[in-house]
Amino acid sequence: MLYIIGGRVLTMSGEKWEKGYICIEEGKIKELGAMKNGAPFPLQSGNGMQVINASGCIVMPGLIEAHCHMGITEEKKGMEGDDCNETVDPITPYLRAIDAINPMDAAFDDAVRAGITGAMIGPGSANVVGGSFAFVKTHGRNIDRLVIKSPAAMKVAFGENPKVNYSGQGKSPATRMAIAAMLREELFKAFQYREKKKKGDLEEPDFKYECWLPVLEGEIPLKAHVHRADDILTAIRIAREYHLKMTLDHCSEGHLIAQEVKESGFPAIVGPDLASRNKIEVQNMAFKTVGILNKQGVKTAITTDHPVSLIQSLPICAGMAAKAGMEEMEALKSITIYPAQICGVDHRIGSLEKGKDADIVIFNGSPLEVATKVMCTLIDGEIAYADQSFSLPHDEKQL
């Protein structure tokens, strides 16, 4: 049994304590609350109990990256480590991120050191349909043991990226009209396949359409790469036509149509605002976007889109959003509980609550400040990283 005591606990579920405690057992949060008379209550002694003293620190749920490509676009490895886009066919829904994510990519270690304990990882945006994302934890070497949810979303892309890739090959899509038409055709065929399967009219399952069933049944969303306002609205239009769940990823011009985004009911995963405006469709990209959408009532998450901007910059991006006008607690929620809810994993992570996974990070100050350091990162109740200046768990007698 492990106790974290003495820190300012921000649960992200509505409660916070200036001096709180968290009791961890078998990788889960067993108890948590305010300390009384300088000690956790109830304090269960014995059985090899260990204590982490977090006095003077902020204790939070592990941070969550809602959209990235770490381990699938590996750093320092060029083409050999780049498995992000299958750029020979614009429709590839049957691809699975778990078959390309390498947890030994250096970005995973960077994530843990930044307090990021979970990430949504998947294909890039070169294809109209790119394949399925997976939500994974960030510490370990075997991807199958890191998965929380797979498939977790189906990637679709609008706008500049599919156009650039395929118009250069002399085939569709070369226009936004073709992107929308090709996605509609694929969804139409997928619904036909589902109906035939329900009626028992299939001679045999079709691998290229089985992957659509979780999307059509509402179990996972479309994950739509959209930057420009017109692309955002096209994605909303198609999702409504087919009655599908969807997340609006990047949403760079979302602030220009904030009311329409709110009315759609779809959440927005905003970023990477720390990157340069190196494409036409991101000319209106700004740190103010996520705060404007959040204040409008849109559920928001903040993304680095690693490696477009580095995974370890996630808390800095939240800080920049706060600097641009976002309420600080909402910025923190946009890298914890909101992305957990958007990614469909909030039953396990995203907030500090009894029964949830003990994915916890201890900061020596506000994570929204650049100079703040991660003192300790725990995943499933185990220490995945500790700053060399931070005291490791000690025996209860040293309380």
Give the gist of this structure.
By secondary structure, this protein is of the alpha/beta class. Helix content is 26%, strand content 25%. The strands form two sheets. Strands 1, 2, 3, 4, 5, 14, 15, 16 and 17 form a nine-stranded mixed sheet that branches.
Protein model, in words:
The protein is an alpha/beta fold. 26% of the residues lie in helices and 25% in strands. The chain is built from twelve helices and 17 strands. The protein has helices spanning 106-113, 143-146, 160-167, 176-199, 207-210, 213-216, 229-242, 258-264, 288-296, 314-323, 328-333, 337-342, and strands at 2-10, 16-25, 28-34, 50-53, 58-61, 63-68, 116-121, 129-137, 147-157, 222-226, 246-250, 268-270, 300-302, 360-363, 374-379, 382-386, 394-395. β15 and β16 (382-386) form a beta hairpin. α4 (176-199) runs parallel beside α7 (229-242). The longest helix is centred in the middle third of the chain and has 24 residues, at 176-199. The protein is globular.
List the uncertain runs: none
The main β sheet shows up as: 9 strands, mixed
Helical content (DSSP H or I, runs of 4+): 25-40%
How many strands in all? Answer: 17
What structural class results from the helix and strand content?
alpha/beta
- Measured by DSSP, the beta-strand proportion falls in 15-25%
Helix and strand pattern: EEEEEEHEEHEHHHHEHEHEHEHHHEEEE
For the CA atoms, what is the radius of gyration? 22 Å
Q: What's the pLDDT, averaged over the residues? A: 95
Envelope shape: globular
Distance between the termini: 15 Å
Number of helices: 12
